[in-house]
Amino acid sequence: MEFITLLGLFAATLTTSAFLPQMFKTWQTKSAKDVSYIMLITFMSGLFLWLIYGIYLQALPIILANGVTLFFNLIILWLKIKYR
Q1: Integer Cα distance of 54 and 65 in angstroms
Q2: Can you give the pTM of this predicted structure?
Q3: Once rounded to an integer, what is the mean pLDDT over residues 28-43?
């Protein structure tokens, strides 16, 4: 595997895992009152577009990072709706 692909995968791991504490905290406290709907929807729209872009380029780090992060943010959105 090329160095630049490994670098991208490492960056993807860091940025994607950054959402795990928020997701777990929301799950544990059963509260997402401090999470903005506008931020979530805007961010998830951007993630979706990055995912499409990554698929078009066939760039594994972009696809993985944005696919998994989009999934985590969908969980956060679901928890926000569930615990309102």
Answers
A1: 10
A2: 0.86
A3: 91
